[in-house]
Design goal:
Blueprint: E1 13-15, E2 18-20, E3 27-33, E4 45-48, E5 63-64, E6 70-73, E7 80-87, E8 95-96, E9 105-110, E10 115-120, E11 123-124, E12 145-153, E13 161-167, E14 182-185, H1 204-213, E15 222-226, H2 233-236, H3 251-269, E16 279-284, H4 286-297, E17 304-308, H5 316-325
Parallel strand pairs: 1-9, 3-10, 14-15, 14-16, 16-17
Antiparallel strand pairs: 2-10, 3-6, 4-7, 5-6, 7-9, 8-11, 12-13, 13-15
Length: about 325
């Protein structure tokens, strides 16, 4: 059994208010002041519910203005209740309240009309007296894991590419003609490497290697892990749009990518057992939701499904209705 290490973080937010409007924009975040100790040349980012809480997400850096303020206009699709914080590119260098006290998530309910939300950053966490800035996390992936490519194209979602990780079981290169079952995992950033994981890696490679070494898994398996799409994670991991978050709706394209593009490539280039009985798909949270959907949609491809703490809430009525309409596998 693959062991996951999942960490959930719950925080409260601080309400903000709309203080202006902009004729041609939807919502603009405007930082009017930063601590005087902010290092010169710092890039200021916003991380929140609209970009999977990535502290240095491309496209979410605020632009410095001639008056020394910073601002970013969010995409028109970002509406409704949102939570966020400002960072200098990492959570270690995220914002803090006055006196370097912990700061709850900022909150705003973004309406359909143009608006400017104005904020100030009181302090930075890493500048707290006695604070130690964490060193970059060390890579922890096992020797039999590698990045297959960092730019696998998703033809079903034109213009998007994805990093794909590959785990080959110990002894694969010496096994001659032996073929292996395959497990496809979502949120690939979290699967093998602590340096890329959101809240600690899942330890899939170490666990499988230990099972093999102890004789509990004499044959082994291939693992293919696909990074999530960052800003597009919620969109790609649900076929249905969530009315509150206004995200989702690209799950069909994403599962088609897995089934019609990625799996054929893996089967053509590695010694797989390509039938459904030896092909599994799994994921956690939103990744669990899309793994469940993929298994229901393509039972002739994915004969086994691993669903861990699935985000059923995101598409509850839709996924349950879909499941009831699917014929039971034979």
């Amino acid at each position: 059994m693959i062991l996951y290490k999942l960490v959930a973080v719950a925080v409260l937010g601080l309400a903000t208010s709309v203080v202006g409007q902009r004729a041609l924009a939807q919502t603009t975040l405007h930082l009017t002041s930063l601590p005087v100790t902010t290092p010169a040349g710092s890039v200021i980012y916003v991380a929140g519910s609209f970009n999977n809480w990535q502290p240095a997400a491309p496209g979410y850096a605020l632009a410095r203005q001639p008056d020394g303020s910073y601002q970013l206009t969010l995409g028109a699709e970002i509406t409704g209740p949102q939570e966020f914080k400002f960072t200098r590119g990492s959570w270690e260098t995220g914002e803090a309240a006055a006196g370097f006290q912990p700061l709850a998530n900022r909150q705003a309910n973004l309406g359909p009309g143009p608006a400017i939300l104005t904020y100030q950053v009181a302090s930075w966490q890493d500048q707290r007296p006695g604070a130690v800035v964490a060193s970059p996390k060390a890579h922890t992936l096992a020797a039999n894991v590698r990045v297959l490519t960092d730019s696998f194209q998703l033809p079903q979602l034109p213009g998007r590419v994805r990093r794909v990780w590959l785990y080959l079981p110990p002894g694969y290169s010496q096994a001659g003609r032996q073929r292996y079952p395959v497990l496809y995992l979502q949120d690939g950033q979290n699967v093998f490497d602590d340096a890329t994981a959101y809240a600690g890696e899942w330890g899939v490679d170490e666990t499988l290697n230990q099972l093999r070494a102890s004789g509990q898994d004499p044959t082994g398996c291939i693992v293919v892990a696909v990074d999530n799409g960052g800003d597009h994670r919620l969109d790609e991991y649900s076929p249905w749009v969530n009315a509150e978050y206004k995200k989702g709706g690209e799950g069909d394209q994403y599962t088609n990518f897995l089934t019609l593009s990625l799996k054929p490539y893996i089967d053509a280039h590695y010694r797989t057992q390509p039938d459904a009985a030896h092909t599994a798909i799994a994921g956690s949270s939103m990744g669990g939701l899309i793994a469940l959907y993929a298994g229901l949609k393509y039972p002739q491809v994915f004969g086994r499904i691993g669903v861990f703490s699935p985000a059923i809430w995101f598409a509850k009525d839709s996924i349950l209705s879909y499941e009831r309409r699917r014929p039971a596998p034979r």
